[in-house]
Amino acid sequence: QVQLVESGGGLVQAGGSLRLSCAASTRTFSTYVMAWFRQAPGKEREFVARHIRDGGSTEYSPSVKGRFTISRDDAKNMVYLQMNSLKPEDTAIYYCAAGVPGTFKYWGQGTQVTVSS
Questions:
Q1: Cα torsion at 100, 110, 10, 91 (round to 10°)?
Q2: What are phi and psi of 110, to 5 degrees?
Q3: How far apart are CA 38 and CA 58, in angstroms?
Q4: pLDDT attached to residue 54
Q5: For residues 5, 39, 83 and 70, what is the CA-based torsion angle, rounded to 10 degrees?
Q6: Is residue 18 a contact partner of residue 115, using CB atoms and an 8 Å limit?
Q7: Cβ neighbours around 105 below 10 Å, total
Q8: 3-state SS string over the chain?
């Protein structure tokens, strides 16, 4: 069982930045693919970014590529999402997820990000 706790959400003006953090409680953190998803009001949950392992490959949704950066620190069991040049359409609940390629079994409770225009 893996518990994930997100933090760092909030209200920011368009063009601003936020850094989300996700703390994982597991002794095998380095074996998991870590990812961020988001869900906007009235929309389905969508993929944002994923990180295969510390020092490994990353992947981004086209809507955030070049603006968001996912990183992880396996020594601290942490994954981060640096969000720059935020847009109102980035407003959503952001979720941290852990799993294996193609399947994310564990999810956090989410953190709200609101971008005002």
A1: 80
A2: 95, 155
A3: 17
A4: 67
A5: 60
A6: no
A7: 11
A8: CCEEEEECCEEEECCCCEEEEEEEECCCHHHCEEEEEEECCCCCCEEEEEECCCCCCEEECCCCECCEEEEEECCCCEEEEEECCCCHHHCEEEEEEEEECCEEEEECCCEEEEEEC
- Written as tens digits, the pLDDT of the chain (117 aa) is 899 999 999 999 999 999 999 999 999 999 999 999 999 999 999 999 999 876 779 999 999 999 999 999 999 999 999 999 999 999 999 999 999 877 999 999 999 999 999
